[in-house]
Amino acid sequence: MGNLQPSSEGAVNVYKVIAGSFKSKENAANRVSFLQSKGIEAFVQPVTIMNERMYRVQAGAFTTKENADKRLEQVIHSGVADAFIVSENTPVGHTPIQEPIMGGIMLSSEQLDLFVKDINPQAMEIGSYYISFGNFYGIRGDIAFAQAILETDYFRFTGIVQPHQNNFSGLGSTGPDDPGAFFQTPSEGVLAHMQHLFAYATNSPLPSQYSLVDPRFHLVKRGSARAWVDLNGKWAVPGHNYGQTILNIYQRMLNRMSSGKK
């Protein structure tokens, strides 16, 4: 990320490199796989254009046009000749209290990992799982990562849940006698986290591409928490201000991005 380029008071321009928009989610996923095979980080972000659901492939977000141009050149050189840049005016310094659980992201996997390593240099790098699984389920993976930071104390695991459990969201953890769920890999642990958020955020059927690994999915009252603050008293008990604390961490992540810190 480069230096912050404010466009107006309390806002910053974010330049996103778009490597295609598709009506088919499968076609968008194929484009992501192609870019990743070329060493370019990318993910699918659902968007609505002219009242039509589209699947946009994003290959980076930057606070300077110069850095976005460099990524655009890399994407075009890989063979995606119709890639382009969009500029979005993003508020900083304030996170609305009713932020929905589902939606698009503002931060890349690299930014997630860099943020947590400011506090815990030994933290595992799992930001890519939060972005990829989050985008698959339509969950805001960057905010889910903030929730994982809260649950694990910046992946230091100073509470009941321990690192070998790969449980980054405290699923099933109720006390010393019940440390919660165990997952075989970090990827599976993040997948379970996303599936549990999906259960809370929507009544839609769980997409079948990935097996259900969340052991508590069917214990959730479907659609009962559309916003992060709706998790208060549900994900954590009593959980007063649980969602607000997640959003506060997320705000610090956005502030880091806006400061241009690398």
UniProtKB/TrEMBL annotation:
GO molecular function term, any single one: amidase activity
All residue ranges annotated as the SPOR domain in the record: 9-88
Database matches in PROSITE patterns: SPOR (PS51724)
Pfam families the UniProt entry points to: Glucosaminidase (PF01832), SPOR (PF05036)
InterPro entries: MGlyc_endo_b_GlcNAc-like_dom, SPOR-like_dom, SPOR-like_sf
Name the record gives this protein: SPOR domain-containing protein
Source organism phylogeny: Bacteria, Bacillati, Bacillota, Bacilli, Bacillales
